[in-house]
Amino acid sequence: MLTLKGVVLTHKPIGEQDRFIDILTADRGVIEVLVKGAAKISSKTGSATQLFAYSEFSLADRKGGSYFLSSVSPVRIFYGLRSSVTAVALASYFSQVLTYAVLPKSGTPELLRLLLNCLHLLSQKGADEQQIKCIFELRCASLLGFMPDVVMCRRCGAYLPHDLVFSPRKGGFVCEDCYLPPELPSGDIPMPAGSLRAIRHIVLSEPERIFSFRVSERCREPLFAFSEQFLRYHLDREFPALEYYHIITGTPAPGADGST
Question: What CATH architecture is 2-127?
Answer without folding.
Answer: Beta Barrel (2.40)
